[in-house]
Request: fold
Amino acid sequence: MTLSNADIELLEAYWAGELPAQQAAVLTERLDNDQVFRRAVVEWQKLVAVLQPDTATLSRRQDLKAMLGAFSQARSKARSRKRWLWGVWVVLLLSLVAWISIRGFLITWISIQGFIAPLQQPIPEKLNCFSTPFFQHFDRLDNTLSTPALNGLQLYDRKRYAEAIVPLQEMFRSSGDSTRLFYAALAAVGSCNPDIAIPVLERFQYTAQWEDLREPAHWYLALAYGSAGRLDEMSTQLRSLANRKGSYADQAAVILRELKLN
Reply:
C-alpha cells in the first residue's frame, strides 16, 4: 500500500498533536486494526528518518559545522598573523641592513674626515722635532719630478713636505687612491706635524691592501709617536721593528739604544 498525500498530511498532524480529538481517535483505531495501513505508515517513517535526520543528528551537524567554521576563521587569522609577522621581520631585516650600510659609510666617512679635516688648514713646517734627525725621505716608485705643474706628489718629491700635505689630501679625496694619503702622512712626519700623521699611519700599519707600505708605516709611525711625546707607544713600535729584522731594524735599534729604551 502507498500512502496518499492526504494520509501523510493527516499523520503529520497526528504526530504533531494538531489533529482534532475525533479525527485522532479514528486514525488511532485505523492504525490498530488496519495492518496494511500500519505497515505502510512504518515504511514511510523509515523513509522519512533516512531523508530527514532527527533533531539530535541535526544538532550535531550544526555543532560540527559551527566548529569547522570557527576552525577555518582561526586558521585564516593565524595565516594572516603569520604573513604579518613575516612582513614585520622582512621590514626589520631590511632596516637593519640599511642601518649597517649607513653606519659603515658614516664610520668610514667620519674616520677619514677625522684625519682629513686637519689637512685642510695651512700646515706650518716646524724646523726641529724628535723625528728630524731620524727622518729619511721615502721615495715613491712613480715620482715625476719633471712634471711642470707642481701637485702634491711633486711637492712631496721635492721634500717640500708642509706644502705637500693639503694637495695630497685633495688628491686622495678626488681619486680615492690611499697612497696619496700615505704620502701626506709621511709629509706630516717630515714637517713635524705628528698629530696629522698618526691617525693615518695607524691604519696603514695593518692594511692588507698595501702590504709593501706596512713596514714603512710602522717606522714613520714610531717617529710620529716620538715627536708627539708618546714614548711608550714609540718604544713598542721600535721593538717590533727591531725584532722583525726588516729594512728598519737597525735604525730602530739605534734609537732604542740612544734613548736607553731597549
Summary: The two ends are 128 Å apart (CA to CA). The first helix runs from residue 5 to 15.
